[in-house]
Amino acid sequence: MKLYNSLVYSVGAHLDQTRIERVSFTSPTVTTRQFFLTTLWRYSFMRFSSLLCCVSNTSSRSDKVDEIKVVVRAAMIQLYTSLTLLLQSRETQAASNQPYTPQRAQGLFDSFADEDDRDVIGPEGLERLCTEADISLDGAQPLILAWQLKCSEMGKFTRAEWLHGMGLLE
Amino acid sequence: MGLRYLTTESIRISSLPVLAQALKELEDLLIRDKQTVTRSPSTSSQAKKRGSANTAEPYKRTRYWQYASDRKAAFAELYQFCFMLAKPPLVFMHH
Protein backbone atom coordinates (compact mmCIF):
# COMPACT_ATOMS: atom_id res chain seq x y z
CA MET A 1 0.00 0.00 0.00
CA LYS A 2 2.88 2.28 0.80
CA LEU A 3 4.38 1.62 -2.58
CA TYR A 4 1.03 2.20 -4.22
CA ASN A 5 0.66 5.55 -2.46
CA SER A 6 4.12 6.59 -3.44
CA LEU A 7 3.39 5.65 -7.03
CA VAL A 8 0.19 7.64 -7.03
CA TYR A 9 2.05 10.59 -5.60
CA SER A 10 4.80 10.19 -8.16
CA VAL A 11 2.42 10.13 -11.09
CA GLY A 12 0.30 12.89 -9.65
CA ALA A 13 3.28 15.11 -9.10
CA HIS A 14 4.14 14.87 -12.74
CA LEU A 15 0.64 15.67 -13.84
CA ASP A 16 0.42 18.99 -12.12
CA GLN A 17 -0.20 22.19 -13.98
CA THR A 18 3.46 23.14 -14.00
CA ARG A 19 4.32 20.05 -15.91
CA ILE A 20 1.63 20.66 -18.48
CA GLU A 21 2.46 24.34 -18.79
CA ARG A 22 6.04 23.43 -19.56
CA VAL A 23 4.95 21.54 -22.65
CA SER A 24 6.27 23.36 -25.68
CA PHE A 25 3.83 25.05 -28.07
CA THR A 26 6.53 26.74 -30.04
CA SER A 27 6.30 24.86 -33.32
CA PRO A 28 3.49 26.32 -35.40
CA THR A 29 3.88 23.70 -38.11
CA VAL A 30 2.82 20.84 -35.84
CA THR A 31 -0.91 20.46 -35.64
CA THR A 32 -2.57 20.22 -32.28
CA ARG A 33 -3.53 16.62 -32.83
CA GLN A 34 -0.01 15.57 -33.83
CA PHE A 35 1.46 17.46 -30.95
CA PHE A 36 -0.95 16.00 -28.48
CA LEU A 37 -0.43 12.41 -29.58
CA THR A 38 3.35 12.78 -29.56
CA THR A 39 3.33 14.34 -26.14
CA LEU A 40 0.98 11.75 -24.73
CA TRP A 41 3.10 8.91 -26.08
CA ARG A 42 6.36 10.37 -24.79
CA TYR A 43 4.87 11.17 -21.45
CA SER A 44 3.22 7.82 -20.84
CA PHE A 45 6.28 5.88 -22.01
CA MET A 46 8.56 7.90 -19.77
CA ARG A 47 6.30 7.53 -16.75
CA PHE A 48 5.72 3.85 -17.25
CA SER A 49 9.42 3.13 -17.64
CA SER A 50 10.30 5.00 -14.50
CA LEU A 51 7.53 3.27 -12.56
CA LEU A 52 8.79 -0.16 -13.57
CA CYS A 53 12.23 0.75 -12.31
CA CYS A 54 10.80 1.56 -8.89
CA VAL A 55 9.49 -1.97 -8.33
CA SER A 56 12.16 -4.04 -9.96
CA ASN A 57 13.29 -5.59 -6.68
CA THR A 58 9.90 -6.34 -5.12
CA SER A 59 8.78 -9.88 -4.35
CA SER A 60 5.33 -10.03 -5.99
CA ARG A 61 6.14 -8.29 -9.19
CA SER A 62 2.98 -9.25 -11.10
CA ASP A 63 0.72 -7.72 -8.43
CA LYS A 64 2.70 -4.54 -8.45
CA VAL A 65 2.64 -4.38 -12.21
CA ASP A 66 -1.14 -4.66 -12.11
CA GLU A 67 -1.29 -1.82 -9.63
CA ILE A 68 1.00 0.21 -11.81
CA LYS A 69 -1.20 -0.45 -14.83
CA VAL A 70 -4.18 0.92 -12.95
CA VAL A 71 -2.24 3.96 -11.86
CA VAL A 72 -0.84 4.61 -15.32
CA ARG A 73 -4.26 4.24 -16.88
CA ALA A 74 -5.71 6.75 -14.43
CA ALA A 75 -2.76 9.04 -15.04
CA MET A 76 -3.22 8.85 -18.79
CA ILE A 77 -6.88 9.70 -18.48
CA GLN A 78 -6.00 12.69 -16.32
CA LEU A 79 -3.30 13.73 -18.73
CA TYR A 80 -5.63 13.38 -21.68
CA THR A 81 -8.32 15.45 -20.00
CA SER A 82 -5.92 18.16 -18.83
CA LEU A 83 -4.16 18.49 -22.15
CA THR A 84 -7.39 18.46 -24.12
CA LEU A 85 -8.84 21.23 -21.95
CA LEU A 86 -5.63 23.21 -22.16
CA LEU A 87 -5.38 22.92 -25.93
CA GLN A 88 -9.06 23.67 -26.40
CA SER A 89 -8.81 26.82 -24.31
CA ARG A 90 -5.74 27.97 -26.22
CA GLU A 91 -7.31 27.24 -29.59
CA THR A 92 -10.54 28.96 -28.60
CA GLN A 93 -8.66 31.99 -27.36
CA ALA A 94 -6.56 32.11 -30.50
CA ALA A 95 -9.60 31.75 -32.75
CA SER A 96 -11.52 34.40 -30.82
CA ASN A 97 -8.71 36.87 -31.30
CA GLN A 98 -8.62 36.35 -35.04
CA PRO A 99 -10.13 39.28 -36.88
CA TYR A 100 -12.65 38.75 -39.64
CA THR A 101 -11.27 38.05 -43.10
CA PRO A 102 -13.15 36.78 -46.15
CA GLN A 103 -10.57 34.01 -46.51
CA ARG A 104 -11.27 32.76 -43.00
CA ALA A 105 -15.00 32.83 -43.67
CA GLN A 106 -14.37 30.76 -46.81
CA GLY A 107 -12.13 28.39 -44.88
CA LEU A 108 -14.71 27.97 -42.17
CA PHE A 109 -17.32 27.06 -44.77
CA ASP A 110 -14.95 24.65 -46.52
CA SER A 111 -14.20 22.82 -43.29
CA PHE A 112 -17.86 21.84 -42.95
CA ALA A 113 -18.83 21.57 -46.62
CA ASP A 114 -20.18 18.32 -48.02
CA GLU A 115 -17.79 15.96 -49.71
CA ASP A 116 -20.15 15.56 -52.67
CA ASP A 117 -20.98 19.21 -53.12
CA ARG A 118 -18.37 21.66 -51.85
CA ASP A 119 -20.78 24.58 -52.20
CA VAL A 120 -23.18 23.23 -49.60
CA ILE A 121 -23.11 22.53 -45.89
CA GLY A 122 -25.64 19.73 -45.47
CA PRO A 123 -27.24 18.29 -42.36
CA GLU A 124 -24.10 16.32 -41.45
CA GLY A 125 -21.87 19.36 -41.82
CA LEU A 126 -24.31 21.42 -39.79
CA GLU A 127 -24.30 18.81 -37.05
CA ARG A 128 -20.50 18.84 -37.03
CA LEU A 129 -20.42 22.62 -36.96
CA CYS A 130 -22.84 22.72 -34.03
CA THR A 131 -20.85 20.09 -32.16
CA GLU A 132 -17.55 21.90 -32.62
CA ALA A 133 -19.04 25.27 -31.75
CA ASP A 134 -20.79 23.77 -28.72
CA ILE A 135 -24.20 24.72 -30.05
CA SER A 136 -27.15 22.57 -29.06
CA LEU A 137 -28.99 21.17 -32.05
CA ASP A 138 -32.17 21.07 -30.00
CA GLY A 139 -32.08 24.74 -29.11
CA ALA A 140 -32.96 27.85 -31.05
CA GLN A 141 -29.43 28.74 -32.09
CA PRO A 142 -29.34 26.67 -35.32
CA LEU A 143 -32.57 28.38 -36.35
CA ILE A 144 -31.13 31.78 -35.49
CA LEU A 145 -28.11 30.94 -37.63
CA ALA A 146 -30.38 29.96 -40.50
CA TRP A 147 -32.29 33.19 -40.01
CA GLN A 148 -29.15 35.30 -40.03
CA LEU A 149 -27.91 33.59 -43.18
CA LYS A 150 -31.36 33.76 -44.79
CA CYS A 151 -31.30 30.08 -45.66
CA SER A 152 -33.82 28.86 -48.14
CA GLU A 153 -33.77 25.23 -47.06
CA MET A 154 -33.83 23.65 -43.62
CA GLY A 155 -30.56 22.17 -42.39
CA LYS A 156 -28.64 23.32 -45.45
CA PHE A 157 -26.41 26.33 -46.08
CA THR A 158 -25.15 27.26 -49.50
CA ARG A 159 -21.81 28.97 -49.98
CA ALA A 160 -23.51 32.12 -51.26
CA GLU A 161 -25.79 32.29 -48.22
CA TRP A 162 -22.87 31.72 -45.88
CA LEU A 163 -20.54 34.27 -47.40
CA HIS A 164 -23.27 36.83 -47.77
CA GLY A 165 -24.36 36.36 -44.19
CA MET A 166 -20.87 36.31 -42.76
CA GLY A 167 -19.74 39.42 -44.55
CA LEU A 168 -17.88 38.59 -47.74
CA LEU A 169 -20.39 40.25 -50.03
CA GLU A 170 -20.90 43.28 -47.87
CA MET B 1 -37.21 51.57 -41.07
CA GLY B 2 -38.25 47.94 -40.95
CA LEU B 3 -35.95 45.21 -39.79
CA ARG B 4 -36.11 43.49 -43.15
CA TYR B 5 -33.98 46.25 -44.61
CA LEU B 6 -31.18 45.41 -42.22
CA THR B 7 -30.69 41.85 -43.28
CA THR B 8 -27.93 42.62 -45.76
CA GLU B 9 -25.88 44.07 -42.94
CA SER B 10 -23.00 41.65 -42.53
CA ILE B 11 -21.99 40.39 -39.12
CA ARG B 12 -18.37 39.81 -40.14
CA ILE B 13 -17.66 36.48 -38.52
CA SER B 14 -15.02 34.03 -39.66
CA SER B 15 -14.36 31.80 -36.68
CA LEU B 16 -16.42 29.25 -34.77
CA PRO B 17 -16.05 30.71 -31.24
CA VAL B 18 -17.20 34.12 -32.44
CA LEU B 19 -20.09 32.55 -34.34
CA ALA B 20 -21.13 30.67 -31.21
CA GLN B 21 -20.89 33.88 -29.20
CA ALA B 22 -23.02 35.81 -31.69
CA LEU B 23 -25.70 33.12 -31.74
CA LYS B 24 -25.79 32.94 -27.98
CA GLU B 25 -26.15 36.69 -27.69
CA LEU B 26 -29.02 36.69 -30.17
CA GLU B 27 -30.71 33.81 -28.38
CA ASP B 28 -30.36 35.59 -25.04
CA LEU B 29 -31.78 38.75 -26.55
CA LEU B 30 -34.72 37.38 -28.51
CA ILE B 31 -35.62 34.05 -26.95
CA ARG B 32 -34.56 34.36 -23.32
CA ASP B 33 -35.33 38.07 -23.12
CA LYS B 34 -32.14 38.82 -21.22
CA GLN B 35 -30.46 42.17 -20.93
CA THR B 36 -28.38 43.36 -23.83
CA VAL B 37 -24.64 42.93 -23.80
CA THR B 38 -22.59 45.84 -22.57
CA ARG B 39 -21.40 48.14 -25.28
CA SER B 40 -17.64 48.17 -25.50
CA PRO B 41 -15.96 51.56 -24.96
CA SER B 42 -14.61 51.71 -28.50
CA THR B 43 -18.14 51.54 -29.96
CA SER B 44 -19.61 54.14 -27.65
CA SER B 45 -20.79 57.39 -29.14
CA GLN B 46 -17.80 59.28 -27.76
CA ALA B 47 -15.42 56.85 -29.38
CA LYS B 48 -17.28 57.08 -32.66
CA LYS B 49 -17.07 60.86 -32.53
CA ARG B 50 -13.36 60.57 -32.03
CA GLY B 51 -13.19 58.25 -35.00
CA SER B 52 -11.37 55.51 -33.13
CA ALA B 53 -11.08 52.07 -34.65
CA ASN B 54 -13.53 49.37 -33.64
CA THR B 55 -11.15 46.84 -32.18
CA ALA B 56 -12.96 45.58 -29.09
CA GLU B 57 -16.02 44.06 -30.77
CA PRO B 58 -15.61 40.35 -31.54
CA TYR B 59 -17.99 40.80 -34.47
CA LYS B 60 -20.03 43.53 -36.04
CA ARG B 61 -23.00 44.03 -33.73
CA THR B 62 -24.96 46.45 -35.92
CA ARG B 63 -27.77 43.97 -36.41
CA TYR B 64 -27.73 43.04 -32.75
CA TRP B 65 -28.33 46.62 -31.68
CA GLN B 66 -31.09 47.01 -34.25
CA TYR B 67 -32.80 43.92 -32.88
CA ALA B 68 -32.29 45.19 -29.35
CA SER B 69 -34.01 48.45 -30.22
CA ASP B 70 -37.17 46.54 -31.18
CA ARG B 71 -37.13 43.04 -29.78
CA LYS B 72 -40.75 42.35 -30.61
CA ALA B 73 -40.30 43.07 -34.29
CA ALA B 74 -37.09 41.08 -34.39
CA PHE B 75 -38.73 38.09 -32.72
CA ALA B 76 -41.67 38.34 -35.11
CA GLU B 77 -39.24 38.29 -38.02
CA LEU B 78 -37.47 35.24 -36.62
CA TYR B 79 -40.78 33.51 -35.99
CA GLN B 80 -41.98 34.24 -39.51
CA PHE B 81 -38.71 32.97 -40.96
CA CYS B 82 -38.91 29.71 -38.99
CA PHE B 83 -42.53 29.27 -40.01
CA MET B 84 -41.69 29.66 -43.68
CA LEU B 85 -38.64 27.41 -43.35
CA ALA B 86 -40.59 24.60 -41.75
CA LYS B 87 -43.58 24.90 -44.04
CA PRO B 88 -43.70 22.02 -46.52
CA PRO B 89 -43.67 23.04 -50.16
CA LEU B 90 -46.98 23.17 -51.92
CA VAL B 91 -47.60 20.16 -54.11
CA PHE B 92 -50.27 20.32 -56.77
CA MET B 93 -51.82 17.03 -57.59
CA HIS B 94 -52.77 16.59 -61.21
CA HIS B 95 -55.12 13.83 -62.04
Report on this model:
- The complex is a heterodimer of chains A (170) and B (95).
- In chain A, α1 packs parallel to α4 (61-97), α3 packs antiparallel against α4 (61-97) and α5 runs antiparallel to α8.
- Chain A is mainly alpha-helical and 170 residues long.
- Chain A is elongated, with a radius of gyration of 23 Å.
- Chain A contains eight helices and two strands, in the order αααααβααβα.
- In chain A, strands 1-2 form a two-stranded antiparallel ribbon.
- Chain A has helices at residues 2-14, 17-21, 32-54, 61-97, 102-112, 123-132, 141-149, 159-166, and strands spanning 120-121, 157-158.
- The model of chain A is unreliable at 15-30 (pLDDT under 50).
- By secondary structure, chain B is mainly α.
- Helices cover 47% and strands 0% of the residues of chain B.
- Chain B has helices at residues 16-30, 45-50, 62-69, 71-86.
- In chain B, 26% of the residues are buried.
- The chains are: A mainly alpha (170), B mainly alpha (95).
- Chain A binds chain B through residues 92, 95-96, 98, 100-105, 107-108, 129, 132-135, 139-141, 143-148, 150-151, 153-154, 164-170, and chain B through 7-8, 10-24, 26-27, 30-31, 58-60, 63, 77-78, 81-82, 85-86.
List the helices and strands and how they pair.
The complex is a heterodimer of chains A (170) and B (95).
Chain A: H1 2-14, H2 17-21, H3 32-54, H4 61-97, H5 102-112, E1 120-121, H6 123-132, H7 141-149, E2 157-158, H8 159-166
Antiparallel strand pairs in A: 1-2
Helix pairs in contact in A: 1-4, 3-4, 5-8
Chain B: H1 16-30, H2 45-50, H3 62-69, H4 71-86
Query: Helices and strands of chain B: which structural class?
Result: mainly alpha
Give the ordered list of helices and strands of chain B. Answer: HHHH
* Beta-strand content bin of chain B: under 5%
Mean pLDDT of chain A: 73
Total number of helices of chain B:
4
Q: What is the CA-CA span between the terminal residues of chain A?
A: 68 Å
Helix content of chain A: 55-70%
Overall geometry of chain A comes to elongated
Instruction: Tell me the greatest interface.
Output: A-B, 37 and 31 residues
Choose one word for the global shape of chain B: elongated
Assembly state (oligomeric): heterodimer
**Number of distinct helices of chain A:** 8
Q: Spans of chain B of 5+ residues with little confidence (pLDDT < 50)?
A: 1-8
